[in-house]
Design goal:
24 helices, two-stranded antiparallel ribbon, mainly alpha, globular, two-stranded antiparallel sheet
Length: about 850
């Protein structure tokens, strides 16, 4: 008996050793394909930061700033603080403008850190509390209580949330670090060097964010998958393995919601408040150092447009990958083909990193920016080359790792697809996968270019919008809303085509592949998107530091292109979010086997919740926009109070007390943290309550309604706001000419005009018309400022946050699917049949 037991233990150890060796062999090639690009992305981001951005000094004396020399007897820190005080109180213009830049840079950095610290404290409490909910509810599945599944899903949820927070924080710090360096680069001479170096600084700052986030997300997700593969046998428990991994996407998307909503409320409360209090109420220039809200405005550009966008796109990557993995794990053929085939969705992102890395040198070295006209061309070239390179690189990868024939279900191709035709029966798998990925890649590029057409002042729609200001703010608002609604036509058509071709070839697995294809150039998209707020901050710093007008002109030109690229980035984010949400809905339906026969649209529960789901994006947008309005009102009142109570502040009288920037930062921080909770709770609770009370069919209607309604609303809101912003910038640069009657010069008129005398008439009595250029301070500009102010919460708060509503609702439904199925076989507590 002892000998038999010893032999049995040896056999068990040998089997365990063989199993371990087999698992290592299975994952060896996959680890190489995924880990090498992920580590390369992190190394490349570190190289850009240390070897490129860090070389731009903020301590050298500027070339084109001239003033009386100031002695520096104190330390740099003491000198900088005294310098800021003199700048704010109007006591002369010091010579060391770089010192001003350093002071403003430190204020923006400390404000951004303070906000993220407060926001992330709330996020940590949410992760802890909701993690317990995830563990308990997921463990209580249709087959009884399974604590292992609940714990593993909750751990993946926490990992995804923490990774999203790290990605947002890194992106924000890089953007803050870069914006001052973009400013000083724009102050260099001659002009060609200033254009090139300022653009390169902003683009490289965005690239650090893009590659760091892409590499970090891919690395953490794959390591988590490898760890979980030791808990679940891949060959027999692939479904359980990747259902637990879905918690990673839930964590990333949940933090993205707080980042987008909280950051969006912060940035637009500060921006709208600063614009109204400065330009409209007090009549002082944008980013004037006398305005107490300017630092809060510049902080907001980083916490909303950078940290929020980074978390948003990280969530899209994680959710699209999770959806594809969950669907693939349901296929017996794909699991039988091996680890490399099932984790093929990660290979798409890995290849994209390498392609974007190679292409990134085009914009900075091979085809650099030399003047204003070349900015948009260089950025579009970057996007196009990334898409083209990704398309060429993915074909051999598809041929290597995708099987020729497979069935997307619990049967094999041989048993399920003989004598029948179905989108789940895939033949020519490599070519089908490539077609789905290519559709996503080029669909995303087309959406980006259409977005550019509707939001760039280089094209007719925005110029027409600018001309509508001739008759006031009302017509500008009407034109802008019409532009936004019209801009949805082509993107929605492109998305519909992508869904059709992907579903026809590979069912819902193809839709997930299409979404990953659209996100294949994630590093480039993030670089171009983060470029925008960096340039916006650079322009604000240039004006507050009193740098020459030509420096502000360069940063304004870079910022105008940045507004367009930000709109392009939002187009990518919204388009990919629509596909990701559809793929997640497909994964949800796949897990809920009761829905294998399809969903009856005329089912009362389905149709009722289809209407309710269509309403949710509007309810959500109303909450976020009202939150911006409430916070902006507080900001305007505070700025007005400081103008009224601080003698000489508005007039710039020498010796006045400095504005209280900290108070304005606190108003934006408190308002954003307070106001972001109700919209977040709406998104998180809606699918859970629906599934618990009404069942999985009602959840399907809710998700479909939110997707169909949300994608239209998000596109129109983002493009309307972007168009209003660039219409204002088009007027500020002097691009708009208005025909007005010619007048004679009166005695009080200056020789250069404008003249206010009698109207000069032709022989027939009609007035002679002349074209007058409109600039800052004109009536057209004031109307454009109103449009821009209205559009700010649309393009930077409500619009971008709606795409998270679509994704988060779907990933929550997927993660809690088993819990829903445990309640009356998926019919809910009300047992709707």
């Amino acid at each position: 008996a002892f000998g038999a037991g010893l032999t049995l233990r040896r056999r068990e150890r040998r089997h365990a050793s063989q199993t371990c060796t087999k698992r290592i062999e299975i994952m060896a090639s996959g680890s190489f394909v995924v880990l090498l690009p992920a580590l390369a992305a992190l190394a490349f981001a570190f190289w850009l930061f240390t070897k490129k951005l860090s070389k731009i000094s903020l301590h050298q004396r500027p070339i084109r700033v001239s003033a009386t020399h100031d002695s520096r007897s104190a330390s740099d820190s003491d000198y900088d603080e005294a310098l800021l005080r003199r700048m704010e109180t109007g006591e002369g213009v010091p010579s060391d403008a770089y010192a001003k830049v350093r002071v403003i840079y430190r204020d923006i950095q400390s404000g951004a850190k303070a906000f993220l610290a407060a926001e992330y404290r709330m996020c940590v409490m949410f992760l802890a509390g909701f993690g317990v909910v995830v563990a308990m509810l997921v463990a209580n599945g249709a087959h009884g209580f399974n604590g292992k599944v609940g714990f593993m899903t909750a751990f993946a949820f926490l990992t995804g949330g923490v990774t999203s927070m790290v990605a947002g924080y890194v992106g924000m710090m890089i953007a803050v670090y870069t914006n001052a360096r973009c400013t000083v680069s724009a102050a260099q001479g001659p002009d060609a060097i200033a254009w090139r170096e300022s653009f390169n600084a902003a683009f490289r700052g965005g690239s650090v964010m893009g590659f760091a986030l892409s590499g970090l997300g891919l690395l953490v997700m794959y390591v988590l998958m490898v760890i979980y593969s030791w808990m679940y046998a891949f060959e027999t428990e692939a479904v359980e393995l990747f259902e637990c991994i879905a918690g990673f996407g839930l964590g990333g998307s949940a933090i993205a919601l707080f980042g987008r909503v909280g950051g969006g409320i912060y940035t637009k409360a500060a921006d709208v408040g600063a614009d109204l209090a400065g330009k409209v109420v007090a009549g002082i220039p944008e980013d004037d150092p006398r305005n107490p809200a300017t630092i809060a405005d510049n902080v907001g550009d980083n916490v909303g447009d950078v940290a929020g966008m980074g978390s948003d796109l990280f969530g899209s990557f994680a959710e699209a990958t999770c959806a594809a993995l969950v669907i693939a794990a349901q296929s017996v053929d794909l699991v039988s083909a091996g680890w490399d085939t099932v984790i093929f969705p990660l290979y798409i992102s890995a290849v994209g990193i390498l392609v974007c890395m190679a292409v990134s040198f085009v914009a900075t070295d091979f085809q650099p920016v030399r003047n204003e006209a070349s900015i948009e061309r260089v950025l579009k070239t970057q996007l196009t080359l990334s898409t083209l390179g990704m398309t060429l690189a993915m074909y051999p990868v598809c041929m290597m790792y995708m099987p020729d024939q497979f069935y997307l279900g619990s049967k094999t191709y041989a048993t399920a697809c003989i004598g029948m035709s179905s989108s789940k029966c895939v033949s020519g798998g490599a070519h089908a996968a490539f077609a789905c990925i290519a559709a996503g890649l080029w669909g995303g590029l087309l959406i980006g270019f259409v977005t550019e057409y509707y939001t760039s002042h280089s094209y007719y729609p925005v110029r027409e919008l600018a001309r509508s200001t001739e008759t006031g703010a009302a017509t500008n608002i009407i034109y802008g809303l019409a532009l936004g609604y019209k801009s949805t036509i082509v993107p929605v058509g492109v998305l519909a085509f992508c869904v059709w071709i992907s579903f026809s070839m590979m069912d819902m697995y193809g839709v997930a592949m299409c979404a990953l294809g659209m996100l294949g150039t994630l590093a480039t998209c993030l670089a171009i998107d983060v470029y925008g707020p960096i340039c916006d901050n650079a322009g604000g710093i240039a004006e507050m530091a009193g740098l020459p007008d030509e420096v502000r002109e360069k940063t304004d030109a870079l910022d105008a292109a940045g507004n367009t690229t930000a709109a392009i980035g939002k187009g990518f984010a919204i388009g990919s979010a629509a596909l990701v949400a559809l793929a997640l809905i497909a994964a949800f339906v796949t897990r809920c086997n009761v829905l294998d026969g399809g969903v009856n649209l005329l089912n009362p529960a389905v149709f009722a919740f289809l209407l309710i789901g269509s309403m949710l994006p509007y309810w959500f947008s109303a909450m976020t926009m009202k939150s911006v309005g409430i916070a902006a009102m507080e900001m305007v009142k505070e700025v007005k109070r400081q103008f009224d109570t601080i003698p000489g502040l508005l007039e710039g009288t020498p010796g006045h007390a400095p504005p209280d920037h900290a108070r304005c930062i606190k108003i934006s921080t408190d308002a954003s943290l307070r106001e972001m909770v109700p919209p977040a709770m709406l998104v998180i609770s809606a699918p859970i309550i629906t599934g618990t009370l009404f069942g999985v069919e009602a959840v399907t209607g809710l998700l479909a309604g939110g997707l169909v309604s949300g994608v239209q609303l998000a596109i129109s809101a983002s493009n309307t706001g972007g168009a209003w912003d660039n219409a204002k910038k088009y007027i500020e640069k002097g691009g708009l000419y208005i025909d007005v009657p010619k007048r004679e010069r009166s005695h009080a008129d200056p020789p250069e005009g404008p003249f206010t005398g009698a109207i000069v008439r032709n022989v027939d009595g009609s007035p002679q018309m002349i074209s007058v250029r409109q600039r800052k301070g004109s009536e057209c500009h004031k109307a454009a400022v109103v449009g821009d102010t209205v559009g700010d919460p649309l393009k930077d708060t409500s619009g971008p946050a709606v795409n998270i509503l679509m994704k988060l609702s779907a990933i929550i439904s997927l993660v809690f699917c088993d819990f829903f199925m445990s309640i009356n076989q998926g019919h809910g507590l009300f047992n709707l049949q």
